[in-house]
Write a structure and sequence with these properties.
Layout (H helix, E strand, L loop, with lengths): L13 H10 L7 E2 L1 H8 L3 H14 L2 E4 L2 E4 L8 H23 L3 E8 L2 E8 L13 E3 L4 H7 L4 H9 L7 H13 L4 E5 L5 E9 L5 E9 L3 H5 L2 H32 L1
Antiparallel strand pairs: 1-3, 2-3, 4-5, 4-9, 5-6, 7-8, 8-9
Helix pairs in contact: 4-9
Length: about 260
């Protein structure tokens, strides 16, 4: 992975800053230090502290000895955490299958603003290739990010790319995303020192056929050698999608079922 992986683009408005801070709590019990939150968001430590104080007063965050955790008000909005937990549950056996059948690093990520945020990471590849869980990378330069962006609305893509102008050519990005769709959702990128790391990405869809997440394989491989794993990656991404849709359906059916049983 490139050095930009752990250097998120700092959010600009107050709303996006608050959202970025809240998004660092990737599970209901997650507690983070002030420095951890500053590192994950790319915001100045003083800015993070000021916003956390306001969020604490309003009940979105609480401050205790381990650090900052989600507060009582956030507990009323569990849908995102639940969805990501279901996604991780659906993907876990398939990440393991990919790790067993390839000598590569396997990543699960979701689109989070203009970056992909990594939910899980397995494999035997050195740390300089593997993104850390909770870390992020600009979506348009990552394999999983390109696989996701290939299937979202153009308005969302424009919003993502606008964060990186004028350093990028939007026309070139759109052309590459069209190529990803022609390949059935398979995206390829090179990064790392001298572009020595090659990654393949594939999309994961929810039951509404909306793009949800991306699955990726990365390693010190040539593109030709990595391409032989493309059918396996696409197959496992489809399996994750099916399993995730089943878990979503069970979650929706559960309240009615429990009510009838009572």
């Amino acid at each position: 992975m490139s050095a930009t992986e752990d250097v998120p683009v700092p959010p600009s408005s107050m709303v996006t800053r608050m959202t970025a801070i809240l998004d660092t709590f990737d599970s209901p019990r997650r507690c983070r230090s002030l420095q951890d939150i500053a590192d994950l968001t790319g915001l100045p430590r003083s800015t993070v502290h000021r916003i956390l104080e306001q969020l604490t007063q309003l009940g979105w965050v609480r401050h205790n000895s381990p650090g900052y955790c989600l507060g009582w008000r956030a507990d009323r909005l569990p849908s995102r955490v639940n969805e990501e937990s279901r996604l991780r549950e659906a993907a876990a056996p398939h990440l393991q299958a990919l790790a067993v059948h390839t000598p590569l690093s396997v990543h699960l990520s979701v689109l989070d603003g203009s970056v992909v945020r990594y939910l899980d990471n397995v494999g035997r590849v050195p740390a300089d290739v593997s993104p850390r869980v909770g870390g992020s990378m600009p979506a348009h330069v990552s394999a999983s990010g390109k696989a996701i962006l290939a299937y979202v609305d153009p308005e969302l893509i424009d919003g993502v790319l606008s964060r990186f102008l004028p350093q990028i050519d939007p026309v070139a990005v759109y052309r590459e995303l069209a190529s990803v769709r022609l390949r059935g959702g398979l995206a390829t990128v090179r990064n790392g020192p001298a572009d020595a790391v090659v990654c393949l990405g594939a999309p994961i869809f929810d039951r509404e056929r909306r793009i949800t997440a991306g699955l990726a394989l990365c390693g010190w491989q040539s593109k030709a050698s990595l391409d032989r794993y493309a059918p396996l990656l696409l197959d496992q991404a489809k399996r994750v999608s099916r399993q995730f849709r089943e878990l979503q359906q069970r979650a929706d059916d559960a309240p009615a079922h429990l009510g009838a049983a009572g």
